[in-house]
């Protein structure tokens, strides 16, 4: 190999290698991420069922039907309600935990690990275990409530109670994880800020609010957005919470905890297998997710800058 | 240069290689089995059921008599089972060689007979007399050109009740006297009132949906007319059944349990309700759910006359690659001798009338049910059943109505609201 | 939506403080003495973290009738071994475990490899469109792939892959988070001088990758691997839709199917839950410290 070939090869290597290295990601992502999303749009414009080989063009019919279906709006309401109930306390709790963990603790690793423990359990496991804990007749939580003199609650039957139960599953699984993320961010805050605050007589909680949170704002925004995206797609928790029968698809007999993903599942992969309709649902969900994520971002940014 | 390529392809191929490895092994298995099958070698037959059909001991017997055949059972939850079957039939892959179909779903599948092996071509054309006529008819395609399934059990109804709870409530416990309490459903509800007045924290029945379904099954025409029109909105009988179920709910008789949930199962063990509609197959669930309640349950007649609730067919999806072997197995499983054994084992009642005067059937009783002569009770029930036409979405329709009653039970809706929603749900179903 | 990455410490040669400041400062940690209330709060949190898992262990060691008992059982019984045996009898749980290991293992290997490759390119190599493409990567982190399930299903059906493990593996072979994570890490941890020195010696890019990048990326790769494995192992929605025969179930699908026996037996279901969680628990106990370090280092959700 002479030196000119070698230098040509070398130049080629320098130029092409980066593209080769990022190619697998983009190729695979295009094939299994982007393409399906685009294809969803195409399918959503058709009367397209798994059970029939005919796919007739239907224009925006599916969207029209979807937006006219009270069950869709019900699912959207449920999803947002569960999202708020599951995310807000979760992140506040995570902040508090992270704050506590910044202190000079004995057994710090123990506490950190204990906090992260729930995150190891799968969503299915979480849903199965909590469905038992929230059982109407023989659940531990109702047993405790009853022993305390409060009555039993039929957790699955009510709108609020079922949303709370599902929110608890989300909170349980994700609080520790977010606490660790916050903790990481908090550890980068310069200590002198707190020292002067302490000299000014600011309490620990006050310091959390006026120093810590503003300082870790980017992290907070990030966790809010990620939790929101996660919350908007909640599926296994309500599905398995229903116990059995067709309620697992409708989210209870009153659809009291049917989420958007469950609604999509009902139409796309259950009764009817209406792929066109399910695809329309998916696209509307996508739009909702983007809108809510952006709103979140703006909102969190504003809260911070006003404080 | 070559090195770059090698590495890169190695890298890209690593994952590909790994999954290909697994994919090949998993997708090769059925092929291998079927290839071997034609040579008379080892065949694995899969059989997909909802719930327990009591076939387990029979498999061993069949395998022993047919070397080379292995039977693999898959059990899924009732509603999942039928949904999944629909999906797998549509995509052309994933079904078992043999699948069970409950009566509420059978006409949905007879509408597409080409997705199943035609059993008339496999030898079933000789066997028509084996089954109750209506059972045979249910699995026939509309134009009678194809038969998609062979009948397993039928669900002639009785009423199971807890003697201990009846006793506590001051009601008679003898099964004949109990039967006399409720010739009609109105009497049944009246008895419920009496029970509720005396019972402390117990319920008269487990769920109103079951009660409603029983009443529907007894009518000559159910939720569909014979032209596949849904008649829920206009049928007096449906409305009457609904109103009576609502009356019972409002009297607090329902334990508000959804069938097949863990809560439902646990309630059997705890004895929280006093009666349950008992098609023959239900006896197995009672026994399985409350093994400690032996002798506490008894069986009386069901109010309102005879009717069939539940029962199943075994079908052979066309994607199954061993239709002959699969057919031989289901023919054997549904033969009278085997149906009798299944009955004795689990309580699933035979759909083959030649057994109905067999003493082994008619004299059968079970200690668990206080030695109730369940053979005789269910034989009479089965013989009295008048066939009722089952529409294409029968199962879904009953589910939707059941959910409506559930909403009333939970206090989420008034009966009127629930009924309105049932009707609109049914509209969007079609 | 770029976020600040905070380096947590032990793992890797990264500087202790994030990009915001490279000047050493005294940080928040170890600043306050915790009071009794702090410990009480933390212990309460520990209790609530552990109780549901403990309870599933309790139920898994009872027979089914224990579930109907009031008060509920709070101490382990003697039926664990029996229940484990029944789990394996009821669903092909062993096969499901193997399937999950194959699925999660393949996905992990692929994600780590491709993310490191792309991360290296984005962090240290110069090429046209680098910034724009990186923005695309970050933006795609927002796209929930779950929403493409209908066409994904049609696609798999077209290929004849429904009800096979490829169908579960293929869509998960890469993810934007991994690329982003590795890019951020390598940008900090990989000394540019080292690469330049290698270049001067005439090393081809793949050599640099192999001999310089990979060793340095190892700690981050381990973390990314663990997070990916966890996510893949616990995935439910897509496998539930695309896998139909029990022989091909992953653990999570098998688990949801355990409820389908003819008498719903909760001790059985929770035994399965426990079995499905156990491998991860073991990993967690052994590698917990590193996982925590990794999460804090990435400061992002997997």
TrEMBL record, chain A:
The chain crosses the membrane at residues 20-42, 80-101, 113-135, 215-236, 280-300. It is found in: Cell membrane. Residues 76-296 form the ABC transmembrane type-1 domain. GO terms for biological process: transmembrane transport. Keywords: Cell membrane, Membrane, Transmembrane, Transmembrane helix, Transport. Pfam families: BPD_transp_1 (PF00528). GO terms for cellular component: plasma membrane. It is a multi-pass membrane protein. Its main location: membrane. It comes from the Bacteria. Belongs to the binding-protein-dependent transport system permease family. This is ABC transporter permease subunit.
Automatic annotation (TrEMBL), chain B:
Coiled coil: none annotated. Residues 1-25 form the signal peptide. It holds the Pfam family SBP_bac_8. It comes from the Bacteria. Transmembrane segments: none annotated. InterPro entries: Bact_solute-bd_prot1, SBP. Keywords: Signal. This is Extracellular solute-binding protein.
UniProtKB/TrEMBL annotation, chain C:
The chain crosses the membrane at residues 37-57, 93-120, 132-156, 168-187, 208-233, 266-287. Its main location: membrane. Residues 97-287 form the ABC transmembrane type-1 domain. It is found in: Cell membrane. GO terms for biological process: transmembrane transport. GO terms for cellular component: plasma membrane. The keyword Transmembrane applies. SUPFAM superfamilies: MetI-like (SSF161098). Keywords: Cell membrane, Membrane, Transmembrane, Transmembrane helix, Transport. It comes from the Bacteria. Residues 1-25 are annotated as: Disordered. It is a multi-pass membrane protein. It holds the Pfam family BPD_transp_1. Belongs to the binding-protein-dependent transport system permease family. This is ABC transporter permease subunit. The lineage of its organism: Bacteria, Bacillati, Actinomycetota, Actinomycetes, Jiangellales.
């Amino acid at each position: 190999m002479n030196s000119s070939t070698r230098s040509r090869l070398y130049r080629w290597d320098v130029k092409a290698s980066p593209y080769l290295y990022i190619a697998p990601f983009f190729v695979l992502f295009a094939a299994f991420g982007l393409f399906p999303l685009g294809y969803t749009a195409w399918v959503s414009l058709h009367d397209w069922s798994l059970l029939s080989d005919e796919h007739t063009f239907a224009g925006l019919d599916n969207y029209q039907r979807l937006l006219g279906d009270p069950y869709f709006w019900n699912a959207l309401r449920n999803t947002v309600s569960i999202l708020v109930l599951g995310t807000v306390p979760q992140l506040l709790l995570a902040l508090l935990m992270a704050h506590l963990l910044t202190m000079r603790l004995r057994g710090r690793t123990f506490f950190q690990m204990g906090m992260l423990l729930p995150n190891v359990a799968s969503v299915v496991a979480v849903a199965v275990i909590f469905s038992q804990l929230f059982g109407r007749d023989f659940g531990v939580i109702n047993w405790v409530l009853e022993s305390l003199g409060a009555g039993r609650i039929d957790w699955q039957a009510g709108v609020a109670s079922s949303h709370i139960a599902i929110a608890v599953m989300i909170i349980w699984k994700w609080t520790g994880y977010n606490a660790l993320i916050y903790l990481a961010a908090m550890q980068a805050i310069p200590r002198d800020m707190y020292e002067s605050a302490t000299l000014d007589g600011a309490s620990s909680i006050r310091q959390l609010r006026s120093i810590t949170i503003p300082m870790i704002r980017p992290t907070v925004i990030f966790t809010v957005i990620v939790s929101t995206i996660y919350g908007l797609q909640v599926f296994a928790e309500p599905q398995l919470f229903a116990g059995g029968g067709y309620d697992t698809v409708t989210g209870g007999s009153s659809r009291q905890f049917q989420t958007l993903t469950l609604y999509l599942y009902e139409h796309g992969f259950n009764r009817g297998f209406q792929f066109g309709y399910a695809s329309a649902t998916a696209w509307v969900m996508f739009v909702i997710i983007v809108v809510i994520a952006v709103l979140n971002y703006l909102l969190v940014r504003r809260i911070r800058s006003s404080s | 240069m070559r090195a770059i390529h090698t590495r890169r392809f190695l890298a890209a191929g690593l994952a590909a290689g790994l999954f290909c490895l697994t994919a090949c092994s998993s997708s090769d298995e059925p092929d291998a089995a079927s290839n071997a099958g034609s040579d008379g070698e080892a065949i694995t037959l899969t059989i997909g059921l909802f719930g327990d059909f009591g076939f387990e001991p029979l498999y061993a017997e069949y395998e022993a008599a047919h070397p080379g055949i292995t039977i693999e059972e898959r059990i899924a939850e009732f509603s999942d089972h039928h949904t999944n079957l629909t999906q797998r039939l549509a995509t052309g892959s994933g079904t078992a060689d043999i699948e069970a179909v409950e009566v509420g779903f059978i006409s949905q599948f007879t509408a597409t007979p080409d997705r199943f092996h035609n059993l008339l071509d496999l030898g079933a054309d000789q066997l028509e007399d084996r089954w109750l006529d209506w059972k045979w008819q249910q699995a026939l395609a509309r134009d009678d050109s194809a038969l998609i399934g062979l009948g397993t059990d039928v669900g002639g109804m009785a009423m199971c009740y807890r003697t201990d709870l009846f006793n506590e409530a001051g009601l008679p416990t003898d099964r004949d006297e109990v039967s006399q309490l409720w010739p009609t459903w109105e009497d049944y509800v009246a008895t419920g009132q009496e029970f509720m007045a005396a019972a402390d924290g117990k319920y008269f029945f487990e769920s109103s949906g079951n009660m409603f379904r029983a009443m529907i099954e007894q009518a000559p025409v159910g939720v569909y007319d014979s032209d596949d029109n849904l008649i829920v909105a206009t049928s007096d009988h449906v409305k009457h059944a609904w109103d009576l179920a609502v009356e019972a709910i409002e009297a607090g008789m329902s334990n508000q349990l959804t069938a097949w949930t863990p809560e439902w199962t646990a309630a059997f063990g705890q004895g929280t309700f006093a009666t349950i509609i008992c098609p023959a197959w239900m006896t197995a669930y009672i026994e399985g759910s409350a093994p400690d309640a032996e002798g506490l349950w008894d069986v009386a007649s069901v109010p309102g006359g005879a009717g069939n609730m539940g029962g199943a067919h075994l079908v052979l999806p066309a994607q199954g690659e061993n239709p002959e072997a699969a057919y031989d197995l289901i023919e054997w499983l549904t033969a009278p001798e085997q149906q009798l054994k299944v009955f004795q084992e689990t309580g699933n009642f035979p759909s083959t009338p030649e057994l109905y005067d067999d003493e082994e059937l008619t004299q059968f009783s079970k200690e668990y049910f206080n030695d109730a002569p369940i053979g005789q009770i269910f034989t009479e029930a089965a013989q009295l059943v008048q066939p009722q036409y089952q529409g294409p979405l029968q199962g879904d329709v009953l589910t939707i109505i059941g959910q409506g009653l559930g909403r009333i039970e939970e206090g989420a809706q008034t009966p009127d609201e629930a009924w309105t929603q049932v009707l609109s749900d049914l509209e969007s179903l079609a | 939506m770029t976020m600040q990455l905070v380096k947590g410490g032990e793992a890797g040669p990264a500087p202790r403080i994030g990009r915001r400041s490279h000047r050493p400062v005294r940080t928040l940690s170890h600043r306050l003495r915790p009071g009794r209330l702090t410990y009480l709060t933390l212990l309460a949190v520990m209790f609530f973290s552990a109780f549901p898992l403990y309870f599933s262990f309790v139920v898994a060691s009872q027979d089914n009738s224990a579930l109907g008992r009031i008060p509920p059982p709070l101490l382990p019984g003697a039926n664990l071994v029996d229940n484990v045996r029944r789990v394996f009898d009821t669903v092909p749980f062993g096969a499901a475990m193997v399937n999950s290991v194959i699925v999660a293992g393949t996905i992990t290997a692929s994600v780590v490899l491709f993310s490191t490759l792309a991360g290296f390119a984005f962090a240290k190599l110069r090429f046209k469109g680098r910034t724009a493409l990186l923005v695309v990567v970050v933006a795609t982190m927002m796209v929930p792939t779950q929403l493409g399930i209908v066409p994904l299903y049609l696609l798999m059906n077209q290929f004849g892959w429904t009800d096979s493990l490829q169908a579960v593996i293929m869509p998960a072979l890469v993810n934007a988070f991994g690329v982003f994570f590795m890019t951020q890490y390598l940008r900090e941890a990989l000394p540019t001088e080292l690469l330049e020195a290698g270049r001067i010696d005439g090393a081809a890019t793949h050599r640099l990758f192999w001999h310089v990048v990979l060793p340095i990326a190892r700690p981050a790769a381990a973390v990314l691997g663990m997070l990916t494995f966890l996510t893949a192992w616990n995935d439910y929605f897509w496998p539930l839709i695309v896998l139909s025969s029990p022989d091909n179930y992953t653990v999570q699908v098998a688990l949801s199917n355990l409820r389908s026996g003819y008498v719903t037996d909760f001790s059985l279901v929770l035994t399965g839950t426990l079995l499905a969680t156990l491998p991860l628990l073991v990993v967690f106990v052994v590698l917990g410290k590193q996982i925590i370090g990794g999460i804090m280092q990435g400061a992002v959700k997997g």
